[in-house]
Amino acid sequence: MMLNIHKIWLLSCLSVIGLIVLYFQSEITRLEDSYRRWEYRLAQSREAQESRSFYPNTVQNDDEDLVVIYNRVPKTGSTSFVGVAYDLCKKNHFKVLHINITANMHVMSLANQYKFAQNVTRWNEVKPALYHGHMAFLNFERLGTPTKPVYINLIRKPLDRLVSYYYFLRHGDNFRPHLVRKKHGDKVTFDECVERGQADCDPNNMWLQVPFFCGHAAQCWKPGNRWALEQAKTNLVNHYLLVGVTEEMLDFITVLEATLPRLFKGATEHYLSSSKSHLRQTSSKKDPSEKTIETIQKSNVWKMENELYEFALEHFKFVKRKLLVREPNSMQQIFFYEKVRPK
Question: Record's superkingdom (predicted)?
Fold first, then answer.
């Protein structure tokens, strides 16, 4: 009897300690978020002061014709990001437009490519604007438009994206919880699917981020095509203003706000304080086992998709480091003009 009392007492103590640890962890997280907000505000204030000191007043930063295209890859956190844009559009006076392509096709016909490019660049009544939709990259240069839009995107670890999509088709998400999905009722786990060699978890299904960055060429959509991967990398560097990673959404938004304040002013603070920072989460998702991960990672498609992800991550960290990370006692980077001739 005495032993049982000691066990109960010990369990009670452990429970109390656990609750205390959880409380302090939540407080630390809250304080870190608060510190991040104040740090960001301080940086913005300092940058504004330096800009007023070094930029001539006669130069205007006119972004009223700005067009941004976010050709969002499914299951990369895009709904959360777009939610921020919709919340800011009225306050910041810009339009947000969803690109809805028949039957959720990711590739447009040639005729529609041309019409879309002409429409986006010439539809002045909705500028400045953010267009978003699940579509492959479209090179406006080859379509003869007078101007080019600014491209942005997010990319995610390929296996994480595939697993999320697998369970999304079966259980839906918390964004529209009552909508019945295509595979509703299928209780086969991702591990079981891989073990049985079923089509839904075929590594070829990961071939999506590469073609989304590669574009509308036929080679882009052939799983495991090396040319498509290299073209995706080239487009990412040459045609995208910014490509972030899902795992660092906050930093992606902060870099966007600093670079395109015409649209994204206030986005960082809004994301930190809003309940929409994780707007769409897949329900009943189970992480794959080590055995499943090893099986998937043997595939050529995973290797190429992961190579693109690692490439994008390295590039994003490089961009972020130049903008957000400041060495002690260093100055905020600026540019200005001098030795202007003739006077």
Answer: Eukaryota
Please tell me the distance from the alpha carbon of residue 337 to that of residue 81, in angstroms, as a whole number. 36
Contact of 167 with 277, CB cutoff 8 Å: no
pTM, entire model? 0.78
Q: How many domains does the chain have?
A: 1
Three-state DSSP class for residue 166: helix
For residue 130, give the nearest of 267, 271, 270, 268 by alpha carbon. 267
Q: Is 188 exposed, middle or buried (0-12, 13-18, 19+ CB in 10 A)?
A: middle
Domain membership flag for residue 120: yes
How many C-beta atoms surround the C-beta of residue 24 within 10 A? 10
Give the three-state DSSP class for 19: helix
Domain assignment of residue 12, yes or no: no
Q: What is the pLDDT of residue 17?
A: 76
Is residue 56 assigned to a domain?
Answer: no
174 band by pLDDT with thresholds 50, 70 and 90: very low
Tell me which H or E stretch contains 153. Answer: strand 150-155
Q: Which domain holds residue 99?
A: 62-324
CATH number at residue 286: 3.40.50.300
Residue 176 lies in a domain: yes
Q: For the stretch 112-142, what's the b/e string if a residue is b when 16 or more beta carbons lie within 10 angstroms of its beta carbon?
A: ebeebbeebbeeeeebbbbbbbbbbbbbbee
| Structure tokens belonging to residue 168 | 């999304």
**Residue 30, Cβ density class (10 Å: 0-12 exposed, 13-18 middle, ≥19 buried):** exposed
278 is catalytic: no
Q: How many CB atoms lie within 10 A of CB 106?
A: 18
Q: Catalytic pick from 6, 93, 106, 134?
A: 134
Helix/strand/coil for 244: strand
Average pLDDT taken over every residue of the chain: 84
Q: Which of 132, 171, 239, 270 is catalytic?
A: 132
C-alpha 77: how far from chain center? 6
